[in-house]
Amino acid sequence: MDLKELTEFLVKSLVKEPDMVSVKELKDENFITIIVMVPKDEMGRVIGHKGRIINAIRTVVSASSYMNDLPKVKIEVDSF
Cβ neighbours of residue 63 under 8 Å, at least 6 residues apart? Predict the structure, then answer.
């Protein structure tokens, strides 16, 4: 499972409407940036209290990146 799929799986597991989640991956020579777009009313579920949920997702995806010798990962979450 690649990093985009892993992130998408984790985020879609949290929200009420998984079909509304959009995940894009941008590769650079030093970083992989994953952009997660969720509906505005689902932001609280993805971010969590004091950012605990999104930080946990970042930790899991970063660990997967490290284990597979991939570049560092940045995850950005935005709403529409």
Answer: none
Return the bridge partners of 36, or none: 23, 77
Nearest residue to 15 (alpha-carbon basis) of 33, 54, 41, 51: 41
Domain 3-79: state its class: alpha beta
Kind of pairing, strands 22-27 and 72-79?
unpaired
Tokens encoding 18? 């998984």
Q: Which segments in the chain show pLDDT lower than 50?
A: none
Predicted local confidence at residue 29, as pLDDT: 86
Say what the pTM is.
0.92
Determine which helix (DSSP H) or strand (DSSP E) holds 15, and give its type and residue range.
none
